[in-house]
Structures are given as structure tokens and as C-alpha cells.
Design brief:
This protein has 187 residues and is mostly helical. The chain has 2 domains: 9-56, no CATH class; 67-173, no CATH class. The chain contains 7 helices and 2 strands, in the order H-E-E-H-H-H-H-H-H. The chain has helices at residues 9-21, 45-56, 67-73, 80-109, 114-120, 124-156, 166-173; strands at residues 25-30, 38-43. The protein has a two-stranded antiparallel sheet. Strand 1 (25-30) and strand 2 form a beta hairpin. It starts with 8 loop residues before the first helix and ends in a 14-residue tail after the last helix.
């Protein structure tokens, strides 16, 4: 779930405590080998009912809350190379997340193709959300690389790469979807 919902450990533990006190989950302690005891939770019948009710209610549209995008918006006040370097660093983080998500997707598929998995899996939502996360990171990767290249080109007085030129863009970011050499399960 950490691939699409950010929460600090403190937030997670506080929420788990509330859920357990409300009877929506039940927890038990599991003693690990050479490790501290960990708590494992199971969703109760009431919790399943609550999840069903939650899923039935319309969700609010998502919103981008990204400090780096604000920095790019105010890029005329920044040193181009400093901001471009931060964009490249974030592009690398997105690429690394894509690799992790590719492994998760491959693990979820197992020996199945996507059609079979989506038709027969008891938990298709896990695959669907991992695909969404991968697409999100691919778009981030491509945008971070492109924005860095635009800022560097402007600083050097060179022509800027434009998104409407797929050949130039693919030279810049690899695959226009931002996937470069990272494979895509089932494709």
C-alpha cells in the first residue's frame, strides 16, 4: 500500500490502534526469530462491512501536492543546474520505484498472463493498483527528465526539447512513457 498511500509509521500505528479499539480489526502478537515481537492484524466481519461501505462511497478527485513542482513553477528564481539536478534525482527515484513495481507486478502475475490474472485472481485490485502506481512513476520519470532538460537548455541558450516532438523527446527520456529500459510485465 505504500506505493500509493503515504503515511508515517506513527500515523499507521495510531490508526491501527483506533481500528482495533473500534472492532474493525483484531491483532495478535507474533514472536519472530531474533527479532522483536510484531503485531499482525486481521480484518473482522465489522471491518469488512466498513470496507464495503467505504468502497461504495464516491471518492474525491486526487490532487498533486508536490514541492518540487512548486519549485519548477518558480524556476526563474532558481539556479537552473541546481533545480535540474534535483529533477534528475527525482527521476532516478521514480525509475527505481518502477523497477520495484515491475517486480511486484511479475510476482502478482506468476505464470499467468494479464488477461488470466485479471479474470481469475481473488485480489485483482492489487494488480490494478500496482499498474496505476507504475504508470504514475513512469509519468513522473518522464516529466522530471524533460523538465530538467528544458531548464538546462534554457540556461545554455540552446533549443528546448518540446513534448510535441516524439523523436527528440524519446532521445531525451527514452521511451516517451518514461520507461526507458525497465520492462513491463505482460508487454
Amino acid at each position: 500500500m505504500t506505493n500509493f498511500w503515504h503515511a508515517t509509521p506513527q500515523q499507521v500505528y495510531a490508526e491501527l490502534t483506533k481500528l482495533e479499539e473500534s472492532g474493525l480489526i483484531s491483532g495478535r502478537d507474533v514472536i519472530g526469530r531474533g527479532r522483536q515481537t510484531k503485531r499482525v492484524f486481521t480484518v473482522t466481519g465489522s471491518g469488512r462491512d466498513e470496507l464495503s461501505a467505504f468502497v461504495a462511497v464516491s471518492s474525491k478527485p486526487g490532487a498533486i501536492r508536490e514541492d518540487l513542482v512548486v519549485k519548477v513553477y518558480a524556476s526563474e528564481f532558481a539556479e537552473a543546474e541546481v533545480l535540474a539536478a534535483e529533477l534528475e534525482e527525482r527521476a532516478e527515484r521514480s525509475r527505481a520505484k518502477m523497477v520495484v513495481l515491475d517486480a511486484i507486478l511479475a510476482d502478482l502475475l506468476g505464470d499467468d498472463d494479464e488477461q488470466t490474472h485479471l479474470s481469475t485472481s481473488a485480489h485483482p485490485g492489487r494488480y490494478l493498483t500496482a499498474i496505476r502506481g507504475r504508470g504514475f512513476e513512469a509519468e513522473n520519470h518522464a516529466w522530471f527528465r524533460w523538465a530538467a532538460a528544458v531548464l538546462r537548455a534554457r540556461a545554455a541558450g540552446e533549443p528546448v526539447p518540446v513534448r510535441s516532438d516524439p523523436v527528440a523527446l524519446s532521445r531525451l527520456v527514452g521511451d516517451p512513457a518514461g520507461v526507458e529500459s525497465v520492462g513491463h510485465p505482460g508487454g
